[in-house]
Amino acid sequence: MQILHTVPEIVAFRKAAQAAGKTIGLVPTMGALHEGHITLMRAARAACDVVIASVFVNPVQFGPHEDFDKYPRTFAADCEKLEAAGVDAVFHPEPADMYPEGYCTYVNVEGDIVHKLCGAQRPGHFRGVATVVTKLINLSGADEAYFGQKDAQQVVVVRRFVEDLNLPVHINMVPIVREPEGLARSSRNRYLSPAEKTAALVLFRSLKKARAAFDNGERDTSKLKQIVRDELATEKLAVIDYVELNAFPSLKPLPVVNQDALLAIAVKIGKTRLIDNIILEAR
Ligand code: AMP
């Protein structure tokens, strides 16, 4: 596996792959890799000739009071996992490689899809995501790029600007990988104490309760959201950021679930903010 640190290095790598007529798969990550990330690598490995992973904690998508400084950085361990997953190259730039002095261009997706859910809680977050993902798509020359349903709103936003900017890449969404007890795998899970980790099981439990009601015929959005809120309220360490149920993928409001819908939650367990979601499929 090649380790590419700079812009010229990744450009040379992808030009060689393109000259050899190879298809390129890109998996953007912020590192601290776990089984969720590795599932994206496997999906890329199965579909593309060349797989490029990026490991970059992107400063532009963090708010001033968020966890950029303390975000876990475990590059040596990440490389072992990427190599084992058959990744061909990892792009691991420094912030100054991506945003050198004088940098002043940003991709700003407008409209409701960036203002609700995580966008409401994290202003500027999707501007940072859209900017870095655009740069990574350009640098890697990716034909296919892989994102997790874990960040379903991110997939919606990425698909939007890829279409709007005519970027010649196909965006794939990979299902959420969970721990055996149901907690969605996340780099931020390592912030949780053992007691908090047990408390965090309430996220998926609450979503499963709503899914059971939905499967029994409940279609009223307010009632489905209330089921989630009631279950989250049983866990005293859980503080709700949001519980939202919107049409998927438009993210438009939906009083009654008569089309595919995203039930998404953000919950603080202690100081750690966790997100999870399920897609309710209207048949
Ligand atoms: P991150 O490193 O947190 O930015 O995540 C990089 C990519 O991995 C994103 O597309 C995430 O949605 C995806 N991802 C993170 N956790 C999971 C998970 N538990 N299951 C599937 N994909 C995930």
3D structure, described in words:
The termini are far apart. Helices cover 38% and strands 20% of the residues. The protein has a six-stranded parallel β-sheet with strand order 1-4-3-2-5-6, with helices on both faces. The protein has a three-stranded antiparallel β-sheet with strand order 7-8-9. It folds into two domains: 2-174, Rossmann fold (3-Layer(aba) Sandwich), CATH 3.40.50; 187-276, Pantoate--beta-alanine Ligase, Chain: A,domain 2, CATH 3.30.1300. It has 283 residues and is of the alpha/beta class. The model has no long low-confidence stretch (mean pLDDT 97). Adenosine monophosphate binds at residues 29-30, 36-37, 39-40, 147-148, 150-151, 174, 176-177, 184-187.
Per-chain topology:
Blueprint: E1 2-4, H1 7-19, E2 24-29, H2 35-47, E3 50-55, H3 75-84, E4 89-91, H4 95-98, H5 118-121, H6 125-140, E5 144-148, H7 152-164, E6 170-174, H8 194-199, H9 201-215, H10 221-233, E7 238-247, E8 261-269, E9 272-280
Helix pairs in contact: 6-7, 9-10
This protein binds adenosine monophosphate (AMP).
Question: What's this model, at a glance?
Answer:
The protein folds into two domains: 2-174, Rossmann fold (3-Layer(aba) Sandwich); 187-276, Pantoate-beta-alanine ligase, C-terminal domain (Pantoate--beta-alanine Ligase, Chain: A,domain 2, 2-Layer Sandwich).
Spatial order of the strands in the main sheet? 1-4-3-2-5-6
Supply the helix-strand structural class.
alpha/beta
CATH class of the largest domain: Alpha Beta
Strand content: 15-25%
With helices defined by DSSP (H or I, 4 residues minimum), what is the helix count?
A: 10
- Quote the CATH topology of the largest domain: Rossmann fold
Biggest beta sheet summary: 6 strands, parallel
Bound molecules: adenosine monophosphate
Give the number of DSSP strands: 9
Oligomer: single chain
Radius of gyration: 19 Å
The CATH superfamily name of the largest domain is HUPs
* Gross geometry: globular
Query: Which CATH architecture of the largest domain would you pick?
Result: 3-Layer(aba) Sandwich
Note poorly predicted spans: none
Helix content: 25-40%
Average predicted confidence as pLDDT: 97
